Amino acid sequence: MIEIIDNLPDDVLNSLDLSEGIDVKFKGIKNVIIGGMGGSAIGGDIAKYYASQYGNLPIEVVRDYELPNYANEETLLICISYSGNTEETISLYKKGKKKKTQIFVITSNGALEDISKKEKTPFILIPKGYAPRCAIAYLFFPVLKILEKSEIIEVKQKDIKEVVSVLKEGKESAKKWAGELSLKLKEKFPFVYSEERFAPVAKRLVTQINENSKSLAHFATFPELDHNEIVGWENPKEIMKRFFIITMRSNSESERMRKRIDITIELIKELAGEVTSIFADGDSYLANIFSFIQKGDYLSYFLSQNYGVDPYPVKRIDELKRRMSE
């Protein structure tokens, strides 16, 4: 697993090269739906938030069997399933065909590849051999390219270059930081707090801790958590000292947001067991995103080692899928 995390900068470069081969341009699009589950959906989440800053159309990420009622021939439906066999995503594909949506598929093989070939649906094959959560670069940059070619977003090339440089230059310090923090996190319950715009990577950190570390975790976002969750820091008192708050911070925080986060932590820090922060490297939103991903992935890996568990297998997910297929 750690070798895969080490290779994230190369995966970004390779996924960018692969994405250059996409020669499809969708026209007449009024809205975008990105369908996927688990690790395959996180790329859609990042694209949604990136597009909210640099795009001109609404994007919705659907983790379900059903499409929204508004989906029609003016909808671009991007179906993402690393395995190609995710039943919810296959369902979205079929529903999208019935609604005459314009469809693009991202997969490594499986039923979605077969259906796409048979029905002449545009698709891209990404490399096999990864766990879906480890293929984040291949599950995000093709989405970005499709949206760019269809003139739905404007991609700043300097931001892409910064992603690569930040990942390469920050790798060793990220590993050192993650290794040290993972020792403090053992037998604790992480509460990950981020700005709303970083919700995808806060969610990813939590799900990486779930899958890699085989441990529970929770996330919430500012400013919403200041309208509800902040009040909950009173009970149950007997376990609250086991809660470990991790805030996700960046140099691009607005003054108002910085003040809000600082005050919130001041109000609750004595109630939690411990408080720390992950600081994103880089100046651009995209560089911040991938810096958080790199640091969070290392943290989940080292925490898995502290718990003495293999980060790769996800036995309960596999067993659930087996039973669902019966």
Q: What does the secondary structure layout of this molecule look like, with pairings?
A:
Elements: H1 2-6, H2 8-19, E1 31-35, H3 39-54, E2 59-62, E3 75-81, H4 87-98, E4 102-107, H5 110-119, E5 123-125, H6 136-149, H7 157-185, E6 189-195, H8 199-213, E7 218-222, H9 237-240, E8 243-249, H10 255-268, E9 274-279, H11 285-307, H12 315-324
Parallel strand pairs: 1-2, 1-3, 3-4, 4-5, 6-7, 6-8, 8-9
Helix pairs in contact: 2-6, 2-7, 3-6, 3-8, 7-11, 8-11
Q: Can you describe this structure?
A:
The chain has 326 residues and is α/β, with parallel strands linked by helices. The chain has two domains: 2-149, Rossmann fold (3-Layer(aba) Sandwich); 172-307, 3-Layer(aba) Sandwich (Rossmann fold). The protein is built from twelve helices and nine strands. The strands form two sheets. It has a five-stranded parallel sheet, with helices on both faces. The protein is globular, with a radius of gyration of 20 Å. The mean pLDDT is 96.
Helix fraction bin: 40-55%
Q: Strand order, biggest sheet?
A: 2-1-3-4-5
Mind telling me which CATH architecture of the largest domain this is? 3-Layer(aba) Sandwich
Sheet with the most strands, sense and barrel status: 5 strands, parallel
Low-confidence stretches: none
Global shape: globular
Number of distinct beta strands: 9
- Helix and strand element order: HHEHEEHEHEHHEHEHEHEHH
**By CATH's scheme, which homologous superfamily of the largest domain applies?**
Glucose-6-phosphate isomerase like protein, domain 1
Beta-sheet strand percentage? Answer: 15-25%
Indicate the structural class: alpha/beta
Mean pLDDT, all residues: 96
Tally of contiguous helical segments:
12
Q: How many angstroms does the end-to-end distance come to?
A: 31 Å
How many structural domains does the protein architecture include?
A: 2
CATH topology name of the largest domain, in short, is: Rossmann fold
The first-level CATH class of the largest domain is given as Alpha Beta
Radius of gyration: 20 Å
